[in-house]
Design brief:
Strand 9 and strand 10 form a beta hairpin. Helices cover 37% and strands 27% of the residues. The chain has a single domain, classed as Rossmann fold. The strands form two sheets. Strands 6-7-8-3-9-10 form a six-stranded mixed sheet, with helices on both faces. Strands 2-1-4-5 form a four-stranded antiparallel sheet, with helices on one face. It is built from ten helices and ten strands. With 271 residues, the chain is an alpha/beta fold. The longest helix has 18 residues. The chain binds adenosine-5'-triphosphate (ATP). The site of adenosine-5'-triphosphate has 12 residues, from strand 1 and helix 1.
C-alpha cells in the first residue's frame, strides 16, 4: 500500500436503541492509501455503511461513535468541529451513495446544481462553474448540451453519472462509494464503474468501495477488507484475500459466488 491517506483506528459505532446500545461496528482498524481502491465486503447488516457514514460524520442519531479515530492525513475527523467538517465533506472526501440519485434536487437544472456545489466550496463564478460542469460532463460521457436539463429528464444511470461528475468536480482526495450502482442494471453498472476506474487513474484519488458484489470488488480493488457482524475479520491484497483467505467466512463468501459454465472463475479473473 502507498502512504496512508485515511487511517481508521479501533472504530466502534453503536446504535442507541430503547432496549440498549447495539454495537454495529466493533474496534475496526484499516488504512486506505493514496490512490488506492479499497473494497469493504460482507453480508448485509455487517456494518459497512455505518463505517461509511462515520467517516464523513454523517451518521445521525441513534448512531453514536463510541470510540476510535478516523485520521485523514493525520487529522482526526472525529475531533473536528462541525464548522471545519464542511471543508472536508465533498472538498476532500466525496460521497456517492446508493441513493445518490436522491442527492440531486429535482427542481433545479443540473447546471445550477454544479454551480451551487462549486460556489459553496470554492467560491466559483457562474462562468467558471459552467466550464467545469462541461468538462466533467464530457468526462462521464454526457453531452454538455444536456446541462440545462432537470434530473428527471435523465435515466437512472445518467443521474448516477451526474452525481459522480459533481463529486469529482471538487477533486476530492477520497471518494466513498457505498453500493453506488446497485439500483442500476448490470451493463450500466459496469460501464459506470469502468469509467470511475479510468477517472481514478487520471486523477489519482483514493476510493472506499462498498458492495455486495465480491466478484466486481475483486476486479476493481487493490485491497479488500472483509466484515462479519461488525468486525473486520480480514484485510489484505485482493490476490491474497481471494487465493489464500485467512478467515473461514471469507472462504464462504468466495464460495457463494456462482460460477457460470464457460465463464472464468473469480480466481482466474483476477489472476
Ligand atoms: N438507524 C439505525 N438504527 C438502528 N440500527 C441500525 C440503524 N442503521 C443500521 N442499523 C443496524 O446496524 C447494523 C449495520 O448496518 P449497516 O447498514 O451499516 O450494514 P451494511 O453492512 O452496510 O448493510 P447493507 O449491505 O445491507 O447496506 C445492522 O444490524 C443494522 O440493522
Amino acid at each position: 500500500m502507498s502512504e496512508a491517506l485515511l487511517q481508521i483506528r479501533d472504530l466502534s459505532v453503536d446504535y442507541l436503541l430503547d432496549r440498549g446500545a447495539f454495537r454495529a461496528v466493533k474496534n475496526v482498524s484499516f488504512d486506505i492509501g493514496r490512490g488506492e481502491l479499497f473494497g469493504l465486503a460482507g453480508e448485509s447488516g455487517c456494518g459497512k455503511s455505518t463505517i461509511a457514514y462515520a467517516i464523513t460524520r454523517l451518521a445521525k442519531a441513534p448512531a453514536w461513535v463510541a470510540g476510535g479515530e478516523i485520521l485523514l492525513d493525520g487529522q482526526d475527523l472525529l475531533k473536528l468541529p462541525e464548522s471545519r467538517l464542511q471543508e472536508v465533506r465533498w472538498r476532500r472526501i466525496g460521497m456517492v451513495f446508493q441513493s445518490a440519485m436522491n442527492s440531486l434536487n429535482p427542481l433545479m437544472r443540473v447546471e445550477a446544481q454544479f454551480h451551487d456545489v462549486l460556489r459553496r466550496h470554492t467560491g466559483s463564478s457562474r462562468e467558471k462553474s459552467r466550464a467545469r460542469a462541461e468538462e466533467m460532463f464530457k468526462l462521464v460521457g454526457i453531452p454538455a448540451s444536456r446541462l440545462t436539463d432537470y434530473p428527471h429528464q435523465f435515466s437512472g444511470g445518467m443521474r448516477q453519472r451526474i452525481v459522480i461528475a459533481i463529486c469529482l468536480a471538487l477533486k476530492p482526495e477520497l471518494i466513498i462509494m457505498d453500493e453506488p450502482t446497485t439500483a442500476l442494471d448490470v451493463v450500466v453498472q459496469r460501464e459506470i464503474l469502468e469509467q470511475v476506474i479510468d477517472l481514478q487513474r487520471g486523477y489519482g484519488f483514493s476510493v472506499l468501495f462498498i458492495t455486495h458484489d465480491l466478484h466486481l470488488m475483486a476486479q476493481l480493488c487493490h485491497r479488500i477488507g472483509v466484515m462479519l457482524k461488525g468486525e473486520l475479520v480480514e484485510v489484505g491484497d485482493v490476490r491474497q484475500v481471494s487465493r489464500a483467505p485467512a478467515h473461514d467466512y471469507t472462504r464462504k463468501l468466495w464460495g457463494a459466488i456462482p460460477q457460470l459454465p464457460g465463464h472464468p472463475a473469480v480466481k482466474d479473473a483476477i489472476a
